[in-house]
Amino acid sequence: MAAYNPVAAPHTHSGLSTTNIMYLVILALSPAALHGVWLFGLPAVTVLVSCCISAWLSEVVCLQLQGKNWLSSVDGSSLLTALLLAMSLPASTPWWIASFGCAFAIIIGKHLYGGLGHNPFNPAMLGRVMLLICFPIELTNWQATSSPSLGAEGLAFSQQWMGIDGVSAATPLADLNQVQAWNELLIGTHAGSLGETSALLIALGGLFLIWRGIIRPYIPCSLLLGIAIPASIAHLINPQDFASALSHLMSGGAMLAAFFIATDLVTSPTSPRGQLLFGAGCGLLIWLIRSFGSYPEGVAFAVLIMNAGTPVIDHYLRPKIFGSQSLFKRSKGA
């Protein structure tokens, strides 16, 4: 008789750890962040650095208070939260406001619920909403782009790019009915947050995550369709009052939400059907808030609302257990 040595499942492993996943997402988001620095200059660097330092220090303090090893702070989760929050802020945001928002996201949005894997709400979006409520003027002061120009003597950096005499400008979300050149929306050469700098780079980063198997296409596709379908219908009925689907998809944080925010592994549903419903709900809420709400952007509010519904979605749309009695009876009756 053959001798078997059974071992405990699982028998296979993808080779990806939490740390690997976090840094792959950061890598995918980095080109868009660097493009934002190129467009907005040192103010953007200040926002990014302030968020990263605040998030890491808050993570270390929370881990120490819980008696955990502070080395867990370098797993990439706090850095990703900082990067997502920074990408949702205007480049002109004062450093202390960005730092306060990140500390709130890590302490209240993450560790208050038990740390990584236990938070019901996306920490970065929780920090974004808190800052918008507390500092509405600072968070709606959009800085105009001022990328370096190439001349005979090399690159020339304007005073605005260096953080001197910043010039404010309107974001496309302020008036979506105003027609924007498609190339400006695609590349992001307009005022807005760092996450609005390039829909193309953000989409490419998201496709990279899908290719690596970090995220599945259900949420990105359903979220974008959840925006595009009602926007197209409303635009066909009344084009003077409702913007086109292209304007909605290419403006604001729609692409960032579709590929990097709504796809958060902790706060989104686990089943394919649940993810489709979750993404469609986020997209519809984004369009409703943009079209009828008091705020020009609805990404953070939409994601947090759907985060609250994730447990219910998982409960009712969970996949059937393999070999369950209901499936057996159904196949037998067929």
From TrEMBL:
Membrane topology, as annotated: Multi-pass membrane protein
EC number: 7.-.-.-
Membrane keyword on record: yes
Membrane-spanning ranges: 21-38, 95-113, 191-211, 218-237, 243-262, 274-293
Main localization of the protein described in the UniProt heading: membrane
Pfam families reported in the protein's UniProt record: NQR2_RnfD_RnfE (PF03116)
InterPro entries hit by this protein: NqrB/RnfD, RnfD_bac
Cofactors that this protein relies on: FMN
Translocase in keyword set: yes
Sorted UniProt keywords: Cell inner membrane, Cell membrane, Electron transport, Flavoprotein, FMN, Membrane, Phosphoprotein, Translocase, Transmembrane, Transmembrane helix, Transport
Subcellular location: Cell inner membrane
Modified residues (FMN phosphoryl threonine): T171
Oligomeric form and interacting partners: The complex is composed of six subunits: RnfA, RnfB, RnfC, RnfD, RnfE and RnfG.
HAMAP family with a match to the protein in the record: RsxD_RnfD
Function description: Part of a membrane-bound complex that couples electron transfer with translocation of ions across the membrane.
NCBIfam families listed in its UniProt record: rnfD (TIGR01946)
UniProt record similarity statement: Belongs to the NqrB/RnfD family.
Protein name: Ion-translocating oxidoreductase complex subunit D
